[in-house]
Amino acid sequence: MHRYRSHTCGALRESDIGADVRLSGWCHRIRDHGGVLFIDLRDHYGLTQVVADSDSPAFAAMSQARSEWVVRIDGKVRRRPAGTENNELATGQVEIYVTDLEVLGPAAELPLQVFGDQTYPEETRLKYRFLDLRREKLHRNIVRRGQVIDSLRRRMREQDFFEFQTPILTASSPEGARDFLVPSRLHPGKFYALPQAPQQFKQLTMIAGFDRYFQIAPCFRDEDARADRSPGEFYQLDIEMSFVTQEDVFQAVEPVLRGVFEEFADGKPVTKVFPRIPYAESLLKYGSDKPDLRNPLVIADVSQEFVAEGVTFKAFRGVVESGGVVRAIPAPGAAAQPRSFFDKLNDWARGEGAPGLGYIVFEEEGGQLTAKGPIAKFIPADVQAAIAAKAGIGAGDAVFFSAGDELKAAKLAGAARIRIGDELGLSAKDRFDLCWITDFPMYEWNEDEKRVDFSHNPFSMPNFDADAFLALDPSDEKTILGITAFQYDIVCNGIELSSGAIRNHRPDIMRKAFAIAGYGEDVLEEKFGGMLRALSFGAPPHGGIAPGVDRIVMLLCDEPNIREVVLFPMNQRAEDILMGAPSEVTAKQLRELHIRLNLPEKPA
Question: How would you label 35-55 residue by residue, b for 16+ Cβ within 10 Å and e otherwise?
Fold first, then answer.
């Protein structure tokens, strides 16, 4: 028999009754029933109940065992007594009568319990992550993560994508977040950077003639943590394809993600065909470029209604006349809500920095639609009816308003849409709604510097006639700010899973794109000279995308925080308190790297 086990703790069934077996694992739960000892023995694969009574030669050793001790047991498989079966366990019809027990690894007093579902502070969980990972839910999440990655790999290979590994030590480049820098011992004063993404390398792979690339890629960004973003590092399914249009990327990627979600959704519905929603439409209808489509509410533009003849609500009229907008958020059935419902929403809006949420409640009197509420008296009946029609509501419903400049009004309206949908119980929770967001603006107005700047990825191909783009006058700001790019995101349940683009593979268009944003040839050569040279030697049209693995798993595990699907995460301050990183280094190490510290003074 094997030194440690003949079976795992999840393997034994009724067919094994009568067999002599050996198991090794952790003492998950110990129960003393007065002369009869029970231990639920746990390993990676499951649980098996083992038992010894006072007649067993292992009874004395078993009575010494404590929670999380690692033991090896020998014994005979037998059927559990009638009425004690556990149908929730795969091994729940059998138990092992123990004849020998060896302690392989005793455990000290536990700082957190593995058995049960007690809650513990983040610091305790991260410091003792190896114990936290033994707990059933977290252990299951990490296994699910590995299964999801296996599924992604399999689906990519089935579409003839080939997996590559790109460098981890590379050059620093301005990609929107701070780099993690690595000092070079051989080149004093110079630094490598950990890649924020393999963006340039995967494009170079296409230029090198490899047609379909993918990688489960580690990415490093020195940015603050959020619930859906790990500090320091994360993983993405990095994809690039040659000789493709935007539609080709959609057709390749959509079945991969849909298939993975369907495989691990535990029966929850998954979008069959991802809707394509232009950025401007998404901002208008949902108040966000990351719409949660489980919420059925659709925002309407009612700006013109508030400057119609007879409207005397000066606050909204003034907003529109000064170039702003008014958005209407429907609230079906809200007329039946108590006054506190409306007051709470107003208080919430003030907490968001807005003066409040104006609203109208619609009722029916004498067969006619009538409006009530704080601002209803300032709006003529015909305009009230027009607002109701645009918002798609009627008697028994309400409508809330958000006003201001377009982006500010959209943000508040989008947040109010989510809140109203949740408060009224309109938003479905047990499904996965995915969509494409397309046609992102290529440029935006930089109010601080009073100039045109890139809105998103500067290396995307403009969705604009090439010759007309090259002929653009940089002073033609109206035309430039109207240009969209072949940029697209995938969003699921209000969470951005990935960004992608058809790349700008023409050096002349790239130079023009940067010139419009005020970047000279010297900047391009300094920061992206290698890419420009590569593009000048025959580059195919190419594009790609990079769905975030961590976020996909977070959604599939129904976890609100990405920490719950990462094996060894950092805390909110980007510290690994288990391993003690970041840590100080020795003076010798600093000398070898030609580095002298200039630390900020500690407060007195």
Answer: eebbbbbbbeebbbbbbbeee
- Strand-pairing partners, residue 48, are 41
pTM tops 0.90, yes or no? yes
Q: What is the pLDDT of residues 304-359, one digit of tens each?
A: 999 999 999 999 999 999 999 999 999 999 999 999 999 999 999 999 998 888 99
Distance of CA 205 to the CA centre of its chain: 27
Handedness of CA 242, 244, 246, 251 (dihedral sign): negative
pLDDT tens by residue, 49-63: 999 999 999 999 999
3-state secondary structure (DSSP) of residue 368: strand
* 155-207 confidence digits (pLDDT tens): 999 999 999 999 999 988 765 678 999 999 999 999 999 999 999 999 999 99
| Cβ neighbours of residue 492 closer than 8 Å, sequence gap 6 or more | 261, 432, 433, 434, 552, 555
Neighbours of 127 (CB within 10 A): 17
Does residue 188 contact residue 590 with C-beta atoms inside 8 Å?
no
CA 176 to chain centre: 18
Q: In this structure, how many other beta carbons lie within 10 angstroms of the beta carbon of residue 328?
A: 27
356 and 350 Cβ atoms separated by less than 8 Å: yes
Using DSSP, how many helices (H) and how many strands (E) does the chain show? 17, 22
What gap in Å lies between CA 26 and CA 310, rounded to an integer?
A: 77
**Exposed e or buried b per residue across 247-284, where buried means at least 16 C-beta atoms within 10 angstroms of its C-beta:** eebbebbbebbbbbbbebeeeeebbeebeebebeebbb
**In the numeric block, which tokens belong to residue 497?**
């899973």
Distance CA 232, CA 271 (A): 32
3-state helix, strand, coil in the chain (%, to 5): 30, 25, 40
